[in-house]
Amino acid sequence: MTDDWLDIDALPGPAFALADELTPGEGHWHTHRHHQLLYAARGVMQLEIDGGRWALPSARAAWLRAGTRHRATVHAPASLRTVYFATDAVPSAVDSLGDCRVFAVSDLCREMILHGMRWGPDRSPEDARANRFFAALVDCCVDWVDAIQPFRLPRARSPELGLAMSFARDNLGEARAEAVAAAGGMSTRTLSRRFRDETGMSWRTWLRTARVLRAMELLADGHSVTDTAFSVGFDSPGAFSHAFGALVGEAPSAFARSLRRAAGGLP
Fold first, then answer.
1. How far apart are CA 230 and CA 172, in angstroms?
2. For residue range 168-216, what is the model confidence (pLDDT) as tens digits?
3. Percent of the chain with pLDDT over 90
4. Is residue 3's pLDDT more than 50?
């Protein structure tokens, strides 16, 4: 990622944009003194903070508060578009948004983010036109984040449940309670209790959500609905479509079409 060689925090000005092409891999944990607006214009990105993990397909974006420890992971190539805002250049209402807010990307939101890419890290801090544009963008963000989306996996608070979660995410197609519990060195009964106590989710709800989030990535990478369904562990395409629609709000095939349309509109 560009962040690896560009010192974001040393750059002047109230706001600037950055385009980056991500290759598969797990990013490093880091923080910025800037607020961030993150958008995967193509592909699906996993955004992780200490409090949870979110899937960011091209229909979703994230607002990340300055100072929040985070990392990004992708399992297939993705196009990241980020806008950085200096903390003294945004309204006080931003402080009430929390560490991370994921929200639906409207046509206006998407076009504003992409339009902002013309003002990169080397832009003049005195460019009045750019400053007016980014001021309007951050004002819009305050309104957009009201529509929170449920694409989040809570993080474990104990090492044992963390091991169990990692095993489940790496083996979604064959993730069974007995094997997952064993990976964490616990019984299935303890696994169930730990999930409720540490995440507020049942084991089954967590697993279903993890499977749907991984399915988003596979669909973004061009996999068919049927292949995706079986790959992430659903017994049938029908069961997969039902679970996917309940979480995402649209059928897997419609979701895949929307990703292709978004990718086709990239500058």
1. 10
2. 999 999 899 999 999 999 999 999 999 999 988 899 999 999 999 889 8
3. 52
4. no
What pairs with residue 64 in β-bridges? Answer: 36, 100
pTM: 0.73
Homologous superfamily in CATH for domain 156-264: Homeodomain-like (1.10.10.60)
DSSP-derived secondary structure letter, 229: H
User: Crossing angle for the helix pair 188-199 and 159-170, nearest 10 degrees?
Assistant: 100
Angle of helix 252-264 versus helix 237-248 axis, rounded to 10: 60
Q: For every residue of 151-215, which 3-state class applies, written as one string?
A: CEEECCCCHHHHHHHHHHHHCHHHCCHHHHHHHCCCCHHHHHHHHHHHHCCCHHHHHHHHHHHHH
Instruction: Read off the pLDDT of residues 223-245 as tens digits, 9 standing for 90 and up.
Output: 999 999 999 999 999 999 999 98
Residue type, 188: T
Residue corresponding to tokens 């578009």? 81
Residue type at 116 in one-letter notation: G
Q: Which CATH number fits domain 2-144: 3.40.50.720, 3.40.30.10, 3.40.50.150, 2.60.120.810?
A: 2.60.120.810
